[in-house]
Queue: 4 jobs
Job 1
Amino acid sequence: MPRNISQEQDQISLNNHFNIIDLLTLDHSYLVECINVLKNKNADKKIKLKYAKTFLDAFKKHSAGEKKALYAPLEEVTAFRSTILEYEIEHAIVDSKVKILTSKLASIRSMSEELEAEMTVLAAIVEHHIGEEEKVLFPKMRQDIENKLLNEMGFQFMVIRQFSEKDLQHKPELKEEVSFIKNSSPISSAKYLSRTHKYFSSQQSLR
Ligand SMILES: [Fe+2]
Ligand SMILES: [Fe+2]
C-alpha cells in the first residue's frame, strides 16, 4: 500500500537514524580508513591500489550527496555561507582530481611512484577537509539546527548517495532505513531546497 506523504514525512523527521551529521561521519570514517592505507609508505602496493580505487569511488558518491543535501541548503544561510563556499571550492578541486585519477587507475595493475604520490597528496587534502567539517561545521549544525531538519537532510543524503546493503557492513543498525529509502520517492531538488529554505527563514539567529 502506498504510504501517505505526511506519514512518510514524520517517519523521516522523527527518526534520528537519518541524522545527516551521523551519516556523513559514517562515510568519513570509511574514507579515513582508506586514507590511512594510502598514506602508509609501507603498505603493500596491490592493497594500496585496491584502496585507491574504493577511496575514489567512495569520495565521488559522498561528494555528490554532500553537495546536494548539505551544501546547497546551507549556502543560502548567512551563518553558514562563508564556510560552505570554502568547502565547495575544496570539493571542486578534489572532484576534478578524483575524475582524472579514476580513469588513470582503471586500467592499471600496479601503481607507479608518481600515481602513488598523487594519491597520497589527494588523501591528505581530503583528510584535512573532512577534519574541518567535523571540527567546524558539524558542531555548529548540532547546535543551530533542530533534529527534525537534520533527519530530513539525512534522508535526502541517503537517497542521493544511494546507501545500499553493501554499506551496512559499516553500520548494520541502518538496515530499516536502507529498505525505507528503497521504497521512497526522492524529493526533487527544488522541493527540498524550498523546504530547507522555509525552515532557515524561520530561524532568526541564522539569517
Ligand atoms: Fe565535504
Ligand atoms: Fe564530507
Job 2
Amino acid sequence: MPNVDLMIFGGGIAGLWTMHEASRRGYRCLLLEAFALGSGQTVASQGIIHGGLKYTLQGMMTGSARRIREMPSIWRKSLAGEQLPDLSQTEIRSNNCYLWRTESLSSRLGMFGAKMGLQVVPKNLTPDEVPDILAGCPGSIGRMDEQVISPYSLIQNMADAFPEQIFRYDPTNLKFLHDKNGTLIAVQIHAPDGTPITIQTAAVLLTAGGGNETLLQLANPAATVQQKSIMQKRPLHMALVRGTLPPFNGHCVDGAKTRVTITSDIDCQGRTVWQIGGQVAETGVSMNRRELIEYAARELSASVPGIELNSLEWNSYTVDRAEGATKSGHRPETPQILQDGNLLTAWPTKLALAPQLAEEICERLSEIHVAPTPLDDSWKSELKRLPRPQVALPPWETAVDWVRLDEQFSQREAA
Ligand SMILES: Cc1cc2nc3c(=O)[nH]c(=O)nc-3n(C[C@H](O)[C@H](O)[C@H](O)COP(=O)(O)OP(=O)(O)OC[C@H]3O[C@@H](n4cnc5c(N)ncnc54)[C@H](O)[C@@H]3O)c2cc1C
C-alpha cells in the first residue's frame, strides 16, 4: 500500500508551492487534483506579485501590506532560478507595473499612501519614459518593480518538477479513512478501471480553493456547524479585451481603490489580450456580460486616454475568490490555515502569499510531529495507473462569443 507523509488535495498555487517546500524539507508528498491544475483561481488570476501597493492606498501600513511586502524578493529569486522552487521556466510577462491616477483629490491621497512603507516603491517617470497610452494622464506616472507572471506557465513549471507525484482522481469516489481514535490515516480513491487504491498518509492538506469546504465535510463529517462555516467566496466579474493593443501592466489609482488593474498576455493566435480587474471587476459583479463590457470600456477610456477602442474584441468571465472566512466578510489579511489533528485546510488569500503559506504549513507539520520519512520510491508504482492532470487554460482561451462595441456605443463615448 502506498504510504506518504503528506497528501495534498488541489493543485493551484497553494498546493503546488507547499508540495515544493515540503519536498525540499524531505517530506514524501502526493498531490491529487480533481479537474485541471490551477483551474479554480490561479490560472484565472492576473499574476501580479504584489508588493503591498493595494493595501497602502488608504495611507496606512495595514497588516496585509506588512506581510506581503516580503514576498516579491522571494518570488524574484525563484523566478531567476536562484533558489527553490526553481521557477526559471515560468514566463515573466513584465518586471514592472505602471502606476498612475485620475484627477480626484482622493486619487492624490491614494498615491501618497501607495508610496509609504512599500519595499517596491514607485519610481516617477520622466516624460520620455511615459508609455504613449498614458500620455495625457494627470500627475506623475510611476513604475514599480512589481513582477507580473503568466499563471498558466507558473503552474506548468511547478507541476513539471513532480512527474510521478501528481495525479488526477475522481472526487465523487473518494473516502477518508480514520483509525478507532478518529485520526485520519488513509485515503481511498479509484483507478480509471474502478479498482480501489488506498494510500496511507501521516497528514492531509486541503488546498482545493473553493472545493475545500466540501472536502473538509467529507474528511471530517463530525465537524460542528461552526467549523463547517469556514470559507467565504468573494466574486469578481473580469473583463477581457483583445486586438491591436500594446503589452501593458499597471494600476490606475482612484482614492483607496485601483480603478482598473490591467495585465496583458498573448493568446494562442498571437493577439495581445488585456485582463481588466480592480474596481471594475468588483462593481461588475452585479452586471450582466454586456453591461460589464460597456462599463469596462468606459472605465478604460477614462483611465487610459491613449487607447483606441474601435476594432477591439471584448469578453468577460466570472470567478470566485475562495478564502478563509472572516467576521466582516472582507479579505483576510494573511494566508489562512485551519487545523484539526493531522488535517490542515488552507487558503493563501493571494497568489503572491503562497511562499508564506507553504512555510507556515511546514511549521504546522513539525508541530504535530509529522516527520519526513527516508526517501523510497516503491510507493509510486501502484499510483502509475492514475492519469496525469492537464493545466487549466487561461480564461481568454476558453471564452466564446467575443463582441465588438457597436458604433453607437463608440460615438456615445466620443461625445
Ligand atoms: C480574477 C482574479 C485575479 C487575481 N489576481 C491576483 C494577482 O494578481 N495577484 C495575487 O497575488 N493574487 C491574485 N488573485 C488571488 C489568487 O489567484 C488566489 O489567492 C490563489 O490563486 C488561490 O490559490 P489556491 O491554490 O488556493 O486555489 P485555486 O487556484 O482555486 O486552486 C484550487 C485547485 O484545487 C482543485 N480542486 C477543486 N476541488 C478539488 C477536489 N475536490 N479535490 C482535489 N482538487 C480540487 C482545483 O481544480 C484547483 O486546481 C486573483 C484572484 C482572482 C480570482
Job 3
Amino acid sequence: MSLNYQCPLCQQTLNLTNNSLKCSNNHSFDFAKENYVNLLPVQQKNSKQPGDNLDMVQARRAFLSTGHYQFLQSAIAKIVQKHTPRTIIDLGCGEGFYTQEIAKLSNANVYGVDISKSAIKYAAKRYPQCHFSVASISQAPFQKGMADALVSIFAPLFENELARLAKSDGVLIIASPGPWHLKELKQKIYRDVKAHTPIAAPNRFEPIEQDLLERQVSLGFDELKNLITMTPFAWKFRPEHWQALKEQGEQHVTLSFYISQFKRST
Ligand SMILES: C[S@@+](CC[C@H](N)C(=O)[O-])C[C@H]1O[C@@H](n2cnc3c(N)ncnc32)[C@H](O)[C@@H]1O
Ligand SMILES: [Zn+2]
C-alpha cells in the first residue's frame, strides 16, 4: 500500500512501518484499530473535541441513510471521475458518505481528512478502500502539489492550503448550498431569508464549470430533525421552533446545491 502523508510537526515525509507512520525526526503516529491515523497535534487542536460532535455525526448519518442526498452524492462522484484523477483528497470529509462513492467510481488513491474523530472513526470502519485521517485541513498532512483533485463538500475552505495541495493542473470541486437550500426551514427562523450565492474562485484557481442541482422533498419530523441537527443552523432552533416543527408533521423542503469546478492557475 502506498500512503502519501507528511508529518504535521516537521513536514517531512511519513513512512509506513508496521502499524505506524514515522518521519525521519522520529515523530510517530499509530493507526487506530479502525484503520485511520490521527495526524492532529495537540497544538492544532483548538478544543477538546474539534469539528463536528457525535450528535451531529449521528444525525448526518441517519439523514444521509434516507437516500435524499443520493442524487448529490452521485453527481459529485461523476464530476470528480470525469477528470480521471489518480490522487484525490476529500477535505472535511465527515463520515465519508461522498468519499466512498468517489472511490467507488475511480481507480484513484482516495484520502478523506476531517478534524472530527467521531466522523473519521465512522468512515474508516465502513470504507476500507479509502485512506482516512484525523487532521486539520488548515494545515493538511500532505506534500505540496500532491492532489489531482481536491474535493470540498460543505466544509471550510482554506485558500492557501488548496493552492498548496493541488497539482499544477489539478482541479478543485466544491459543493455548497444553492440559492434557496432549506428555505422553508429558514423561514421559520429568519424574517428575511437571503439566497446563497455561488462560491467565488479561491486564490490561484479559475472557474471551469458550475452546476446547480435542485429538488423538492417531503420530510417527516425525524428526518427534519436530523437534517437540522447536522448543520450549524441547529444552534438557531429554540424549543418553540422544534415544537412547531413537530406539530406541523410532514413538510416540503427545497434541497439546492451548487457544484463548482475550478482548475489550478499559475
Ligand atoms: C458540514 S460538515 C460536511 C461533512 C461532509 N463533507 C459531508 O458533507 O457529509 C463539515 C465538516 O468539516 C469538518 N471540519 C471543520 N473544520 C475543519 C478543519 N479545520 N479541518 C478538518 N475538518 C474540519 C467538520 O468536522 C465536519 O465534518
Ligand atoms: Zn516529523
Job 4
Amino acid sequence: MACACSGGKTNLIYACSGAANTGFLADQVARQLMKENIGSMTCLAGIGANLSGFIASAEGADRNIVIDGCPVACGKKQFEARGIPFDHFVMTNYGVEKNKTAITGDIIVDISNKVASAITEKVCSLN
Ligand code: SF4
C-alpha cells in the first residue's frame, strides 16, 4: 500500500525493536511498511546515540514514523528529547498485550495495514 501522492520515499521509519513481544512486533511492522514502500527503515539506536548522520537524516525527512511496542514509548521519547517532529504508533493500541500476545504473521500483516492506512491518509490529506 504505497502512497500514490508522495511516493513515500522520504518517510523514515523507526522501530523500538525492544525485547518484548511488542518490541518484536514494532520491528516486524516497520519492516513490512518498508516492503510496501511506505518509507525506509533506519536505526532508532542511531538517534539515541546522537550520531550526527542519523539526526541530520531525521531532521531532513518529510516524515519520521516512530513505532513503539508499548506505552513506555522509548522511540517517542528520543524524538521528543531532540525536538524532531514525528508520527507515533504504539503496538499495544492495536489489541496486542505486552508479554502475552503471541505475534503471528497475520497479526503483523493486519497491524501493518492499519498503520499504513493511517500514514497514507495523513500524507495524502496534506497534498
Ligand atoms: S517502547 Fe516498550 S517494547 Fe519498545 S523498547 Fe520501550 S519498553 Fe520495550
